User: Which sequence fits this backbone?
């Protein structure tokens, strides 16, 4: 009886969580430029519009580029820090790790304002790199946490085993450590990428009027009235995120990455 | 065939001496065990030999080469870890040929070598399996194969059998010994299990508190323990405190026991310990020669099926005596009997 | 070998402290990135919060406290109180709903857990833009839930449920809930299952076992989750704008507004610094608290 009650509760909450997506997906199929739910008529025109008009395609491409570069930079920052902290216990690495966790402890607005002031002081305000670099350091928390979680799962005996078989420190990293943490690196990349794709406030504050990312475009067009095209864009975003996370789950242990205990232990 | 020498080796962790003036000269081509309880320093010694840690002081030599400062990856030692430490992202043959992969040998050669080793460990058909398709015993063998793939100078095994169940452990002991004899490779096994050390090895190195207690063949260690620790740790024994006399007798609690003391303990003056093993003792209702027996009280009788263990006591001393199972003992708990002493017994410095 | 096996790695590590090894050089690029592009902005922002704002213009280096004195402005004070209350309510509701949810989900099979976790991650990573847009539709007259209420006979005709503080609340609840779940998911998944089982053998039903065993045992987790969700909720800046009226604006919105539309960067910086300090002290405080309860 209470087990059924529990399942009912989980289903109810899951429905609540999924509801906005269901409605947005429904709205995107409207035939006319009005938002009805359930949709009136059925048309995929809005999806075609989104992928074929530069009005939407340009911000999508901008966002993809920013997200891809920011992700690569964030991983490149986090990987050496996590590795040196884990393998050699370097104090400086620990300090950098602590610093890298700060962005997620603070409301994003404060970081965004910091970036805004910084970039206008050094003269990069409004540039593509202002958005990209700001994203990469803002999102570095994700790879820091996930890669160090991944390193924690590496048995140190494996490193000794590799050394006894003739592997140098570099070879140990390339042939043992990196392959073992690869799922975590991949997972962290997926998170970073999706977060950067959808990040609004920082992109808006450091280059909101020049570098139009997809979230900025969505917010801007909201001012001029709603259209099912925006719903179609939202559906794309949700599908892209869900697809990437699904891939992560296939490739590695998603539950472990979000911190669950491995049940096989 | 490598001969391993350690000269006055120390290892310190902060103010803690994990190893103190270790001197060892181990014969090549033999099965050697480092035996000691947890925290004795045996694993530290082992890691030092492997090159995973470096000595704070002293010299480690493989044959005539000084390897003290040589890192692990240049020493060419094959290691088997307690939890096997197989690479989870590689399958069986990739694990075995990992060392060859580092040397960028062609794939065909690596594969062939892996097959060869799988043949050696009697698991010829598992080359392409992943690790979670293997049983514990199979993983153990794969770890052994991997360690041997590079034809190492030394073969090191850290508690290799502790994760296996009792039956499999015995089986693997025999296999390891066979393997060692076939290859003739100098092999060092770290263990805390004295039984394992006694059955497997040519030479046993007993370690406690970072110091070498004794080096010898299993029989020497058992029959002629050089310290009370060794006597106590290896097998069961009762140590009597007394004074060994020049004439071979042993003075104990006001008695003069006619046991024929052998061993290097000093005679006549300093107190020594007389080591008595269960198989040297027998219980009788009445002994013919009082200088050859101690009066004891039977405390506990345990019938194990294969034999009967009898615990008897004299003052603070407790003796274990083994009697054959299957027929009546003729005495019971609480009885007072005479404990017959052997003709010869080992004495050591107290 | 308990003594050695624990002391070996630490000893090996401590020996490399401070030594400038060539391998440590790989820390320089990440170090520069974080120090220049992350620490600097915050330091500069701190400095700017003391700068003098030139009327109708930019700002110039100075040391004035007027930006902080502006906190006593009733607009700011009401926004502050509103933000704190809103986030406190959201935090309490989220964590109370998330506790049983996470507990139940963590005991489900992996095939069920994974889609749920993916759904949570989607919400968490989509940011407020898509979610805010979705809620405006969901709460609208033409496509929203009010249509269902009409269909059920509760309402006569569909109404728009936003802008209102209710709309902000529900959207923030939706946004913060996944964060709450993922914060308490690790400790709950590690939670010793034999405890509720032991309670069951003593006659407690699953619901009672949850409230009498699981909840008290995870008290520390709950407290830190409350704080983290509170801080997370303080970061919301779009929901109050999209779903509320200016009277519903929170501190985060106020900062954006001052910085972008009112060009009062020093005042925005001062508010930012203040917000950072609140969050820092809360998180460090709860960190201390949990350390104390562990030791």
Assistant:
């Amino acid at each position: 009886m209470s087990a059924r009650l529990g399942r009912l509760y989980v289903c109810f909450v899951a429905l609540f969580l999924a509801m906005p997506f269901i409605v947005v997906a429904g709205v995107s199929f409207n035939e006319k430029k009005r938002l009805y739910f359930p949709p009136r008529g059925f048309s995929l025109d809005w999806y075609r519009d989104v992928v074929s008009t530069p009005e939407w395609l340009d911000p999508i491409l901008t966002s993809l580029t920013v997200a891809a570069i920011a992700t690569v930079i964030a991983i490149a920052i986090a990987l050496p820090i996590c590795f040196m902290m884990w393998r050699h216990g370097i104090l400086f690495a620990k300090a950098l790790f602590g610093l890298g966790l700060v962005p997620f402890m603070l409301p994003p607005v404060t970081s965004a304002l910091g970036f805004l002031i910084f970039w206008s002081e050094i003269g990069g305000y409004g540039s593509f790199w202002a958005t990209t670099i700001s994203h990469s350091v803002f999102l570095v928390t994700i790879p820091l946490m996930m890669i160090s979680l991944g390193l924690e799962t590496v048995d140190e005996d494996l490193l000794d085993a590799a050394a006894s078989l003739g592997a140098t420190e570099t070879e140990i990293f390339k042939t043992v450590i990196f392959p073992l943490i690869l799922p975590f690196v991949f997972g962290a990349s997926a998170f970073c990428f999706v977060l950067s794709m959808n990040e609004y406030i920082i992109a808006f504050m450091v280059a909101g009027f020049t570098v139009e990312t997809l979230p900025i475009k969505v917010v801007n067009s909201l001012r001029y009235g709603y259209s099912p095209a925006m719903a179609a864009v939202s559906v794309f975003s949700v599908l892209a995120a869900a697809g990437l996370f699904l891939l992560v789950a296939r490739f590695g242990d998603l539950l472990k990455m979000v911190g669950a205990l491995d049940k096989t232990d | 065939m490598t001969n391993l020498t350690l000269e006055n080796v120390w290892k310190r962790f902060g103010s803690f001496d994990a190893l103190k003036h270790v001197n060892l000269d181990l014969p090549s081509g033999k099965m050697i065990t480092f035996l000691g309880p947890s925290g004795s320093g045996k694993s530290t010694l082992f890691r030092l030999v492997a090159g995973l840690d470096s000595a704070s002081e002293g010299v480690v030599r493989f044959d005539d080469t000084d390897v003290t400062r040589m890192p692990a990856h240049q020493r060419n030692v094959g290691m088997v870890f307690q939890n096997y430490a197989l690479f989870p992202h590689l399958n069986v043959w990739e694990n075995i040929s990992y060392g060859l992969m580092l040397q960028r040998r062609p794939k065909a050669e690596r594969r062939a070598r892996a097959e060869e080793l799988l043949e050696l460990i009697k698991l010829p058909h598992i080359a392409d399996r992943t690790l979670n398709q293997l049983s514990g015993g199979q993983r153990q063998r794969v770890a052994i194969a991997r360690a041997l793939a590079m034809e190492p100078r030394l073969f090191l095994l850290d508690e290799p059998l502790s994760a296996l169940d009792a039956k499999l452990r015995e089986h693997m002991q025999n296999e390891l010994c066979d393997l060692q004899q076939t290859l003739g490779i100098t092999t060092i096994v770290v263990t805390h299990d004295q039984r394992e050390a006694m059955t497997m090895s040519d030479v046993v190195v007993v370690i406690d508190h970072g110091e070498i207690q004794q080096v010898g063949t299993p029989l020497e260690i058992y029959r002629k323990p050089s310290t009370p620790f060794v006597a106590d740790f290896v097998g069961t024994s009762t140590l009597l405190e007394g004074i060994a006399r020049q004439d071979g007798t042993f003075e104990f609690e006001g008695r003069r026991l006619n046991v024929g003391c052998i061993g290097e303990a000093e005679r006549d003056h300093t107190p020594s310990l007389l080591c008595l093993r269960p198989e040297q003792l027998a219980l009788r209702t009445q002994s013919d020669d009082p200088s050859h027996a101690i009066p004891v009280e039977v405390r506990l009788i345990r019938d194990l099926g294969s034999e009967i263990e009898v615990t008897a006591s004299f003052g603070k001393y407790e003796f274990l005596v083994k009697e054959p199972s299957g027929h009546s003992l003729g005495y019971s708990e609480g009885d007072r009997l005479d404990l017959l002493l052997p003709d010869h017994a080992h004495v050591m410095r107290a | 070998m308990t003594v050695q096996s624990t002391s070996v790695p630490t000893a090996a590590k401590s020996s490399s402290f401070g030594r400038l090894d060539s391998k440590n050089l790989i820390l320089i690029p990440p170090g520069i990135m974080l120090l220049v592009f992350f620490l600097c902005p915050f330091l500069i922002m701190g400095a700017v919060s003391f700068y003098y704002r030139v009327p109708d213009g930019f700002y110039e280096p100075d040391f004035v406290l007027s930006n902080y004195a502006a906190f006593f402005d009733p607009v700011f004070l009401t926004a502050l109180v509103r933000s704190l209350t809103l986030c406190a309510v959201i935090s309490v509701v989220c964590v109370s709903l998330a506790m049983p949810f996470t507990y139940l989900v963590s005991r489900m099979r992996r095939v069920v857990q994974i889609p749920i976790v993916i759904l949570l991650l989607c919400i968490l990573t989509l940011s407020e833009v898509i979610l805010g847009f979705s809620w405006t539709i969901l709460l609208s007259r033409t496509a929203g839930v009010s249509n269902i209420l009409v269909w059920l006979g509760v309402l006569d005709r569909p109404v728009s449920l936003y802008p209102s503080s209710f709309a902000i609340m529900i959207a923030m609840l939706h946004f913060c809930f996944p964060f709450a779940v993922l914060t308490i998911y690790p400790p709950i998944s590690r939670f010793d299952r034999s405890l509720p089982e032991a309670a069951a053998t003593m006659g407690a039903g699953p619901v009672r076992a949850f409230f009498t065993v699981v909840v008290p045992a995870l008290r520390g987790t709950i407290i830190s989750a409350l704080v983290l969700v509170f801080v997370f909720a303080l970061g919301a800046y779009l929901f109050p704008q999209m779903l509320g009226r200016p009277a519903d604006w929170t501190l985060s919105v106020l900062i954006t507004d001052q910085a972008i539309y009112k060009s009062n960067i020093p005042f925005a910086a001062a508010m930012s610094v203040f917000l950072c300090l609140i969050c820092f002290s809360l998180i460090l405080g709860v960190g201390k608290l949990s350390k104390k309860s562990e030791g």
Q: What stands out?
A: The first helix of chain B runs from residue 42 to 50. DSSP finds ten helices and 21 strands in chain B.
